[in-house]
TrEMBL record:
Domain Xylose isomerase-like TIM barrel: start-end pairs: 44-305
Lineage top rank: taxon: Bacteria
Composition-biased stretches (Basic and acidic residues): 335-355
Record key words, sorted: Isomerase
Protein name per its UniProtKB record: Sugar phosphate isomerase/epimerase
Length: 355
């Protein structure tokens, strides 16, 4: 994708905290949209106090695309005062192919406004998906992914084309604003498998602007058979421009057919992020990262995940730099052997001739 990684280091790589653990409604019932600016500032101070230098403006907390101009300017000031960079706006559960045509149109309009707001705030990426609002059963469950949610109609060519057209419209707006659009993988949508996600971005046909958010944590947590995580990343990482990182413990009892999953720290769950980051670098991934965690003190777990990812990046980037240096030295040696560079004894002879 179009991000440049030449200056990326383990410490400078943008890793933002998701705001999943901060509710969109205050204790008194006030929406965060309408809350005093001081509340926004307090949340961002809390993120910074956890050691983050970036944040993901997750729209389950605050919707920049629905803020009037003056409030959007106030948000910009709060972000600047916090000292935080913003990796992305993650706009979730706003499917542009919702089966309710009015809802789908409303979501498209909202996402276009979100792109405009991101540009106004200087945020480089907007992440969107095709997943829809949680069902009553999901809202009642301890972990919502243990209940089935809405799904896109498989094999429906008309609906697929509508997804392509509307996501391409978002991509064109993003391109005009100098932004990236990232499509989040999510079960039972047209972004619910590696093959489907790759096919969708290819049909959209804007590889410099529209890429994937290979959030395979959304898939490995399902209580049913899923694709191998390494196979999913191998297929999707070459198309990735943003990445929600989270992990889950996963178990399967063959005797009963039962599956069990719960959230895990990034270093402890099913997905081996040491291997995953190596695969990402091999694929040329240079986009920002976002660390997520459901349950408990999600911010503190996310902070530990951030540090874990930086430790891995430090080792993997250093290994690449060393390998590049060795390759460069080997190339220089070959040049001398071919007579294109000065040989040591030739240099000595030149010095002696000048005496």
């Amino acid at each position: 994708m179009s991000h440049t990684a030449m200056s990326r280091t383990a410490e400078s790589w943008p890793i933002g905290a998701a705001l999943l653990q901060f509710p969109g409604t205050l204790a008194d019932g006030t929406s965060v949209q309408d809350a005093p600016v001081a509340h926004w500032a307090a949340v961002l101070r809390e993120v910074a106090a956890a050691g983050f230098d970036h944040v993901d403006l997750t729209d389950s907390w605050l919707r920049p695309g629905d803020l009037p101009p003056e409030r959007l300017r106030r948000l910009a000031g709060v972000i600047e005062d916090s000292g935080l960079g913003v990796t992305a706006v993650s706009a979730v559960r706003r499917s542009v192919i919702d089966p309710d045509p009015e809802a789908a149109e409303a979501h498209l309009g909202y996402l276009l406004r979100t792109l405009d707001a991101a540009a106004e705030l200087g945020i480089p990426v907007v992440s969107v998906g095709l997943h829809r609002a949680l069902t009553p059963a999901q809202l009642a469950a301890q972990w919502f992914w243990t209940e089935s949610g809405a799904s896109d109609p498989p094999g429906d060519a008309r609906m697929w084309q509508l997804a392509v057209e509307r996501l391409a419209a978002l991509g064109r707006r993003a391109a005009g604003l100098g932004l990236q659009l990232s499509l989040e993988m999510y079960e039972d949508t047209y972004l619910g498998t590696a093959a489907g996600a790759v096919a969708l971005v290819r049909d959209i046909g804007m590889p410099q602007v529209v890429g994937l958010n290979p959030d395979i944590g959304n898939l490995v947590r399902l209580h049913r058979p899923v694709e191998n995580w390494e196979d999913m990343l191998r297929a999707t990482l070459p198309h990735a421009n943003y990445w929600h990182v989270k992990n889950y413990y996963r178990d399967h009892d063959p005797a009963t057919g039962a599956y069990f999953t719960v959230p895990a720290p990034a270093e402890s769950g099913l997905i081996n992020y040491r291997r995953a980051l190596e695969m990402a670098l091999d694929a040329g991934f240079t986009g920002p990262l976002c660390v997520e965690h459901y349950g408990g003190d999600g911010l503190s777990v996310s902070a530990a995940n951030r540090d874990y990812l930086r430790r891995i990046l430090d080792v993997k980037l250093a290994a690449r730099e060393t390998a590049h240096g060795v390759a460069g030295a080997a190339g220089a040696g070959e040049a001398r052997a071919d007579g294109r560079g000065a040989r040591p004894w030739e240099e000595r002879e030149k010095r002696e001739a000048l005496r």
